[in-house]
Amino acid sequence: MARTFFIGGNFKLNGSKKSIAEIVDRLNKAALDVNSEVVICPPAAYLDSTVQAVTSKQVSVGAQNVYVKASGAYTGENSVDQIKDLGAKWTILGHSERREYFKETDQFVAEKTKFALDNGVSVILCIGESLEEKKAGQTLAVVEKQLTAVIAEVKDWTNVVIAYEPIWAIGTGLAATAEDAEEIHASIRKFLASKLGDKVAEEIRILYGGSANGANVASFKDKKNVDGFLVGGASLKPEFVDIINSRK
Ligand code: PEP
């Protein structure tokens, strides 16, 4: 089964009304590969204007995080109902920056994933190991533990995309090699098959994230378990279009 190539753009806490409008304008005007599905995730403050500005049918908008409640006394949080109300369809969850700086546990990420999915928001679920864990040979143990927490909560994985993002590669300019990413993605898929069955494992998209850019994505082209990219820094730049078009 062919999995649709998926590119997520994580703007993180970057941009302004003007610069994000320029990024969206560039995407609207570009000849994007019709076989690529694109989800851009601006800061929450710009979700509304981003949704309003997107004209390309293959570009959707997502949040970078949501909470486990849709409303109430939860100061500072993002609501699934409110992001849906704005027209956003996706959210990133479990990004390593949230796990590290905001102390999000595997269990909390799992609960948020379930809540988002139950409320009609699709999820880009981030997993990945630190440099220390990589050096200790724990990569698979770490990602399997992260996934196990979500597997315990989520039964239907149709609206989940997994982003394998080794923490040591995020924002460092040191991307994993395509060969290493392929090997880990294949292991993740095998693990998912053992827990969720062959069909789910075969259909789910597994993205690579970590210093992906316009120059290095071509090396992933023939990697059959790399179904796209979650892109941070380069999603703010013109080369994001090259990444979207890298399977053309
Ligand atoms: C990310 O933040 O998800 C990411 C992959 O960042 P970068 O592409 O900048 O490494």
UniProtKB/TrEMBL annotation:
Superkingdom of origin: Eukaryota
Reactions catalysed: D-glyceraldehyde 3-phosphate = dihydroxyacetone phosphate
Protein's UniProt keywords contain Hydrolase: no
SUPFAM superfamilies, per database record: Triosephosphate isomerase (TIM)
Enzyme type, top EC level: isomerase
EC number: 5.3.1.1
Keyword Nucleotide-binding included in the entry's annotation: no
Pfam families the UniProt entry points to: TIM (PF00121)
One annotated GO molecular function: triose-phosphate isomerase activity
GO terms for cellular component: cytosol; mitochondrion
GO biological process, alphabetically ordered: canonical glycolysis; gluconeogenesis; glyceraldehyde-3-phosphate biosynthetic process; glycerol catabolic process
Pathway: Carbohydrate biosynthesis; gluconeogenesis; Carbohydrate degradation; glycolysis; D-glyceraldehyde 3-phosphate from glycerone phosphate: step 1/1
Keywords: Gluconeogenesis, Glycolysis, Isomerase
Assembly and binders: Homodimer.
Stored NCBIfam families: tim
Family the UniProt entry places it in: Belongs to the triosephosphate isomerase family.
Protein name as catalogued: Triosephosphate isomerase
Annotated gene: TBLA0I02040
